[in-house]
Amino acid sequence: MASKIILLPGDGIGPEIIAPTLELLDAVGTSFDYEEHRFGGASIDAHGTALTDETLAACQAADAVLLAAVGGPKWDTTDPAKPRPEQGLLGLRKGLGLYANLRPVRPLPALYDASPLKREVIEGTDLLVVRELTGGIYFGEKTRTRDSASDVCAYNREEIERIARVAFRAARRKVTSVDKANVIETSRLWREVVRELHAAEFPQVTLEHILVDNAAMQLVSNPSDFDVIVTENMFGDILSDEAATLTGSIGMLPSASLGEPGKPGLFEPVHGSAPDIAGAGIANPLAMFLSAALMLRHGLGLEAEAAAIESAVDRALAQGLRTRDLGGDANTRAATQAVLSNL
Ligand code: IPM
Ligand code: MG
């Protein structure tokens, strides 16, 4: 039976980058049972909530979830009583138990000159951000009165161990654990647990601990020094955007969010819904294509097909494909065609 994939095009450029991704998946010879659901702002408009119980249940029962992007000015609000598109994303992460967010950052040689960093600084960079995704300040208890507010940041040993294990397993050279152990209590626990796990299970991997402010600095001054970065939810959110810009465009970065083995993962680009260019047919679909490749690899065990997509993207870029965010003028159609012709 064909694997069941839930498609969540979401908002903004979402629908226009999901459609060519399905073309690419067909072209690579895979055939899935797709089921599309409204999500984010689109779901708020239709159902009053960013993630319906029905959509969550469909995702839980699927083999993988492919998401494009959510959000837009239409739904921006600071009113805690109003629904927000991002709640859909957070609900899905929690509801699917997606505690491990993998964001590989591998600037292609063809794009070195698109990077905001000097070529000699960016050269050789190939890192993976492993972000804890279902704990910390994102999911701690929140309070709000008119004049005060609080967000609790909490972690327990088990949550830290399981994400650190993902990082150690992914490491080729070393793991850099990022925290703020000079100030924050959860960071002190984080550091202790990572250190103990390392000694007990992964002594062959080099482990370093650095503070998050220092990590932000090292990412732009010495990015090629990193292999795997493991960190808590909020630090990971910030550092992964920073790491993403090293590639020259956030439009290039895919991500995988994984839970327990055998459970469906969620695959999505790191970029947002780009409401300013929605509907114009000019969005860069490459991060979406690469997210589909991560789905094939991590979600469905189709390594050869994943590698085929990745190398087709690499070759299209090497041949000069540049979308607008990369300083060129290729639109979504042209970018799709360029990748398809390199499969
Ligand atoms: C991300 C996004 C989300 C996050 C938002 C949209 C809730 O920035 O996936 O990095 O903060 O996790
Ligand atoms: Mg983010």
What is the compact description of this entry?
With 343 residues, the chain is an alpha/beta fold. Helices cover 40% and strands 18% of the residues. It has helices at 14-27, 41-47, 53-61, 85-95, 119-122, 157-170, 185-201, 212-221, 233-245, 286-299, 303-318, 332-340; strands spanning 4-10, 33-36, 64-69, 100-105, 127-132, 142-144, 149-151, 174-179, 206-211, 228-231, 254-258, 265-269.
Description:
- It contains 12 helices and 12 strands.
- The chain is α/β, with parallel strands linked by helices.
- It has 2 domains: 1-98 and 252-343, Isopropylmalate Dehydrogenase (3-Layer(aba) Sandwich); 116-247, Isopropylmalate Dehydrogenase.
- Helix 7 links the parallel strand 8 and strand 9.
- Helix 1 packs parallel to helix 12, helix 6 (157-170) packs across helix 7 and helix 8 packs parallel to helix 9.
- Bound molecules: 3-isopropylmalic acid and magnesium ion (MG).
